[in-house]
Amino acid sequence: MKRLAAEFIGTFALVFAGTGAIVIDETTGGAVTHVGVALTFGL
């Protein structure tokens, strides 16, 4: 059960941060750039 919770929390954090970076990039007119969004997703 701990592994399931850890996987859920980790996946949620990664997706939340990545989509947040996309929203901030669009809001600021491209200040984050494609590279910044990719780095946020951990690529």
Can you tell me about this structure?
The protein is an all-alpha fold. It has one domain (2-40). The protein is built from 2 helices and no strands. It has helices at 2-27, 33-40. The longest helix is centred in the middle third of the chain and has 26 residues, at 2-27. The protein is elongated and about 40 Å long. The mean pLDDT is 95.
| Gross geometry | elongated
Count of DSSP H/I helices: 2
Work out the number of β strands: 0
Q: What's the story with the biggest beta sheet?
A: none
From the alpha carbons, calculate the radius of gyration and give it in angstroms. 13 Å
Please indicate the percent range of residues in DSSP E strands (runs of 2 or more): under 5%
Question: How far apart, in Å, are the first and last alpha carbons?
Answer: 28 Å
What percentage of residues falls in helices of 4 or more residues? Answer: over 70%
The low-confidence runs, each spanning 5 or more residues with pLDDT under 50, are none
Quick check: average pLDDT?
A: 95
Number of domains as seen in the coordinates: 1
The topology string of helices and strands comes to HH
Alpha-beta classification? mainly alpha
Features:
43 residues, single chain, 0% strand, 79% helix, mainly alpha
Topology at a glance:
Blueprint: H1 2-27, H2 33-40
What is the compact description of this entry?
The protein has 43 residues and is mainly α. Helices cover 79% and strands 0% of the residues.
